[in-house]
Amino acid sequence: MKKTQLTMVMLILAAMVYGSKATATTVVNTDKSHLKSIKVTKLSPINPNKSQVYLIRANKRYEQGDYQGAIEDYSEVLRINPNDIEAYYQRGLAYYKLKNYQGAIADYNQALRINSDYADAYINRGLVWHDLGNDKRAIADYSQAIRINPKNAYAYYNRGNAKQDLGDRSGAIRDYTQAISINPNDAEAYNNRGNARVGLGELQGAIEDYQQAISINPKYAQAYYNRGNARAEQQDFEGAIEDYNQAVNIDPDYAQAYGNRGLAQYNLDDISKAIADLKKAANLFQQQGKVEDSRKALDIIKMIENDQTVSYLEVIADFLGKYRHLEIG
């Protein structure tokens, strides 16, 4: 009876593998590698109004994570030269980092006013729309970037993310496939295509994609986690546990992986290990400020201990399927 109950829970979990926004988006930045040897701490006393000096310092501040300082310097550049496209673009990136989405959109709009074929500005404006929950506008921007540069892997990858959020998994798979054809070493694209395939019930294809992502990046905890979910849905709980083990070895704070490993242990009738994993998940959720998720993990423990019915487990187990399965910068 118990094994049947948790098997059904695992199926519910796997069906929700791509909950809310399962992907992290990629911000396209201008190459600033030449700045690595430049140490700008103050403006030149000889020519304090030279916009290039402000621009160099702004870029360095951005690299160091001082986004507000970077915004101030980019603003000085634009005061001197109101048509400096790089300053608008880079300030948009800094606004995005600070979650000032309207500021970011305004700057990308200005960059596109100066150059309507600026593909990266379309991509990054699309990311803002994506974060604001307007995936249709995001797709329009990514499509413009693809029109300008059909070989832009970032544009296909991010458009795939937006399509997947809208439920268009087949369209997402096509875009991830295009991204992979341009960049065969894109582990994130393989992982996200795997998520889309899970949504279509293509579990073996999804597992193959997760395997490819792992081959490219052996430290990719989320790919192990996702493959574990797919294996659990195939009733391969031993294989799932192996993958959750890898995920928590790479990321010891991966609460979701502990929770799902606990459910897999339960399906193998290892009650003590199941409860230990769920307690670990509950503690991690508590530490991470996810109080409600911690409570629900403890509720699942109570259900296991009291051998409650499937219907109630279905109600409380949904928290295990709602996490982002990709946390990539």
Strand content: under 5%
Described by strand count, sense and barrel closure, the largest sheet is: none
Protein structure class = mainly alpha
End-to-end separation in angstroms reads: 43 Å
Task: Report Rg.
Answer: 23 Å
Number of strands: 0
Mean pLDDT: 84
Helix and strand element order: HHHHHHHHHHHHHHHHH
Low-pLDDT runs: 1-27, 29-41, 319-329
Proportion of helical residues: 55-70%
The number of distinct helices, counting runs of at least 4 residues, comes to 17
Shape: elongated
Descriptors for this entry?
329 residues; 17 helices; disordered N terminus; mainly alpha
Describe this structure in words.
With 329 residues, the chain is mostly helical. The chain is 70% helix and 0% strand. It has 17 helices and no strands.
Q: What's this entry about, in short?
A:
The chain has 329 residues and is mainly alpha-helical.
Write the layout of secondary structure elements.
Blueprint: H1 2-15, H2 51-63, H3 67-80, H4 85-97, H5 101-114, H6 119-131, H7 135-148, H8 153-165, H9 169-182, H10 187-199, H11 203-216, H12 221-233, H13 237-250, H14 255-267, H15 271-287, H16 291-306, H17 310-316
Helix pairs in contact: 1-12, 1-14, 2-3, 3-4, 4-5, 5-6, 6-7, 6-8, 7-8, 8-9, 8-10, 9-10, 10-11, 10-12, 11-12, 12-13, 13-14, 14-15, 15-16
